[in-house]
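pasting for ref
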Amino acid sequence: MIGIVITGHGHFPRGILSAVELVAGKQDQIVSVDFEEGQSSGMLKEALLAAVEGMEGDEVLILSDLAGGTPFHMAAEVKQEQKGKHIRLLAGTNMAVVIEAVFSRMGAGLDTLAEMAAEAGIRGVVDFERLRDEEETTQFEEGI
């Protein structure tokens, strides 16, 4: 099973994992690594490395909140330095990304899973006004 590590600023990782488990139930091989106030980037990197090394398989998907942030940079360093695991790193994580990763990781390879999760994240961002306009158009077209 592909391992999943969620990282980001503050308690974002812990919070999004909590939300996902509310929807999908308790998950194996998934951990959150928070980057809290007062924590150094070196401490975060050590926590990320421990999380990756703690995964049972050799494939790990790391999901970060923001590209360019400290959690992303430290995860990128872990990815570059960790030779014993095949790691993919995504940034811009939202709940749709994590849900897709959780439900699809048993039937997909790591590269495919990363692509599926990234696409789900893009589809998961919806503007209510546009959605409402599309629904009204669809209803009109269908004669409702």
